[in-house]
Amino acid sequence: xxxxxxxxxxxxxxxxxxxxxxxxxxxxxxxxxxxxxxxxxxxxxxxxxxxxxxxxxxxxxxxxxxxxxxxxxxxxxxxxxxxxxxxxxxxxxxxxxxxxxxxxxxxxxxxxxxxxxxxxxxxxxxxxx
Length: 129
Hints:
By secondary structure, the chain is mostly helical. Helices cover 77% and strands 0% of the residues. The longest helix has 25 residues, at 69-93.
């Protein structure tokens, strides 16, 4: 018997993706947001981690619903880390993604990836409820 598509999860995914891209557009048009809210970027990365985790969760629920919780954790977190590291690489390479190309800052990159991971952990914790 074929699994039903998890529509509710897909709608949450759309919500978080729209939130991240919408806030990112606001950030690019109003550079002062970084000065008013110093952790604005971390919030965006956490929301992106949640969105990426939801995408992985929808994929799992639709294609392989019978895997263990342990396997779900590694698939979700692997997806989140892969996308987070990929974004950081793209952010350093393409000036379109970063209005002001800044010199490489290991602290910023590390906290961005940790914020992505936090979003994935929040999502995974939600899946356990």
